[in-house]
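Translate sequence into structure tokens.
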Amino acid sequence: MMLIELNFVMNYVFTRETWYSFSVRGRQESMSL
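Result follows.
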């Protein structure tokens, strides 16, 4: 049970970090254009 919860939390954090970096990168590219 603990392992499943840890996996869920890590997956949630990884998804948030990925979307955050992706949005920041896209925003910088649109601003440079």
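Note: The mean pLDDT is 87.
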